[in-house]
Amino acid sequence: MLTNLSDSEERTGRRPGGETSRSSLANADTSGGRAGDKIFSGLSLGAGILIFVMLAAVAIFLTWQASPVLDIPATSVSGGEGFLNYVYPLVLGTLVAAIIALLIATPVGILVALYISHYAPAKVAKPVGYVIDLLAAIPSVVYGAWGMTVLSPALAPFYTWLSENFGFIPLFAGPASATGRTMMTAGIVLSIMILPIITSLCREIFIQTPQLHEEASLALGATRFEMIRQAVLPFARTGIISSVMLALGRALGETMAVALVLSTGGLQWSLIRTGNNTIAAEIALNYPEAFGNRLAELIAAGLMLFIITLIVNFIARAIIARYKEFSGAN
């Protein structure tokens, strides 16, 4: 009788009074948890594989569509000097515009993030944070229209002054553009566009700095600036690099704002002359009417931009992996 009752309890997990044994509940929870973990792990793995598949599909498509460029005679390519001579100014213009944007937006974004996270009172920090985040919601065509109609004419006198006083520097050699639609203007517009990315990410990293690190620095007699330099910035170093690289990717691929601001033309080493263009803007302006060899040229230019973006991301990951000790990456 007792043996049969024990066997029944083991099979059903219940005591004679109708109570479920703790061991059976634990086993049920464990089995259910393991099943959920396996499902979630499978979904995560599938999502990761899907990203690689999509990336490979884009690379294969661009390579396949751009392959006819290899068979096009050099005289038939735009400019009449071959594909490399055609795409070289576009690559240079893309990199120059992105570098100008980073040089302006990176220090401003980091300083604004530090002000929001460590200096401003809460009633000021929140509105400033909302305004910075709101900049990311403005369409790029609006930035481009503003840069073309407002910023460019406003900067034209400044460019004239630069050419008159610093024209001996190749980057500021004249004659300056009378319209202000130059590579410098495009870089300034891009810097405003990528500013929310750098500021928002840096702000979140700065907030996550361990409070004990900050308090220990202050307890040793450090000023607030010294505390930020000793505790906050080392912790946030990889996060800052990640935000800058993400902003660089946005600047490299920006299309409409640059297309509206720049007056297309040949390669100009001066930042205040009319001319220059980027790969994204070149594709946006010419793709709707392109066909045949011209279409292959534009897709090949897009492949070059794809490769540049991959290289930038690989470099960023290498830098982050090297400096991840004592940082927000841990």
Structure commentary:
- The protein has 330 residues and is mainly alpha-helical.
- It has two domains: 19-71; 75-322, MetI-like (MetI-like fold), CATH 1.10.3720.
- The chain is built from eleven helices and no strands.
- It has helices at residues 2-12, 22-66, 83-119, 122-135, 140-166, 183-207, 211-219, 224-253, 256-261, 279-286, 293-322.
- Helix 4 (122-135) packs across helix 6, helix 7 (211-219) crosses helix 8 and helix 8 (224-253) runs antiparallel to helix 11 (293-322).
- The N and C termini lie far apart (60 Å).
- 33% of the residues are buried.
Record the SSE blueprint:
Blueprint: H1 2-12, H2 22-66, H3 83-119, H4 122-135, H5 140-166, H6 183-207, H7 211-219, H8 224-253, H9 256-261, H10 279-286, H11 293-322
Helix pairs in contact: 2-11, 3-4, 3-6, 3-8, 3-11, 4-6, 5-6, 6-8, 7-8, 8-11, 10-11
What structural category arises from helix and sheet content? mainly alpha
Compute the average pLDDT: 82
CATH-assigned fold name of the largest domain: MetI-like fold
Say which CATH homologous superfamily of the largest domain is assigned. Answer: MetI-like
CATH architecture of the largest domain: Orthogonal Bundle
Structure described in brief:
The protein has 11 helices and no strands. It has helices spanning 2-12, 22-66, 83-119, 122-135, 140-166, 183-207, 211-219, 224-253, 256-261, 279-286, 293-322.
